[in-house]
Amino acid sequence: MSAPPPASAIPRDIKHHSIALTTKAEASIHYSFVCGQGVIGQTCLVVFLNGLMMPKASWLPVMGSIVRQRKGMGCPSMLAYDRYGQGMTEDRDPQDEGRKEGYGHDCLDAAQDLHQLIVQIADIELQTKLADLQLVFVANSIGCAIARLYAQGYPATVDGILMLDSIMANSNFDFWPNPDAENFKQELLPEDVSIDILREQRAKFAAIFSPSIVNREGLNRRSLAKLLPRSDGPKLLGTKLPPLVTVVGHDFDAFAQESLKTMNTPKSLSMRYSNPVWHAYNEGLTQITDPKRSKGPIIAKGCGHFIQRDDPNFVVQELSAMLDELETDTSN
């Protein structure tokens, strides 16, 4: 697992700006942008999609490494941004005005905002139209759900998606057995987990991860299970070919250690329950494109949930492989 480079190592090629969407002119979104080099710089846009807990700053080491590694051979244009109410974007979503706090815009709204942002960035930064670009998403956590909703809502516009430990969109994160259920069998619990510990963990996860819990960003997750009820569908349409989809999951042991540190979750609980469920979800995600265009699930060795933070070089490697394959598609 590699440490992110210091701020001094982030290339000056990454520029930082704010923009107001024409559909929500009263609020601004903060974004970071790299104007690419060579043919690919004018024809390919890579967009990084945040989870709830990691802002766009978490992508800067990846963007910087791509700039350095592909200098002289052609570098795609790249965009990272903070959604309303997140990171450097201080403005809240204007459409939330008058709604109960935390229960306004949802992931479908975020996908629609993303579309408008990309249309404007293509025009302002690249002087081109979205229809003339290869569009690639690199997403973490709930950003993966937004990427899927975008690709479904704007079919035949996305050429590739690199999913880094996607949120389980159809889950309420109730991984654990219910000790109050009639069919509960205590003997099936790991030896180091008592019923009291089980109850404590269930309560902790419900208080933080339940879709009804409000987050700082104000992104309403209550509709997500209806928007994306299955991990294995629907299949996505690419531009000329089905989109490339690479699915990456966390390292089981690293995630268990991370959960122990942050939630005091016994590692045995993560290993027996949450890890297998998450991996099965990732297996489903590999089916949202043609089998020949799908890769994974890959395990990001040594990484917990925030793969771009834990090993940016791994993300660079997988993104570079996808870009190379897209270039091959274009040349053919």
Average pLDDT for all residues: 94
> Helix and strand succession?
EEHEHEHEHEHHEHHEHH
Q: Which structural class do you get from the secondary structure elements?
A: alpha/beta
Give me the Rg, rounded. Answer: 20 Å
N- to C-terminal separation?
A: 36 Å
Description:
The chain has 332 residues and is of the alpha/beta class. 37% of the residues lie in helices and 16% in strands. Helix 4 (142-153) links the parallel strand 5 (134-141) and strand 6. Helix 7 (252-263) packs across helix 8. It is globular and about 60 Å long.
Keywords summarizing the entry:
332 residues, eight-stranded mixed sheet, globular
Put the structure in a nutshell.
The chain is 37% helix and 16% strand. It has 10 helices and 8 strands.
Question: Helices and strands in order, then pairings?
Answer:
Layout: E1 14-19, E2 29-34, H1 38-43, E3 44-49, H2 60-70, E4 77-81, H3 107-126, E5 134-141, H4 142-153, E6 160-166, H5 195-209, H6 224-227, E7 244-250, H7 252-263, H8 267-285, E8 294-300, H9 307-310, H10 312-331
Parallel strand pairs: 3-4, 3-5, 5-6, 6-7, 7-8
Antiparallel strand pairs: 1-2, 2-4
Helix pairs in contact: 2-10, 3-4, 7-8
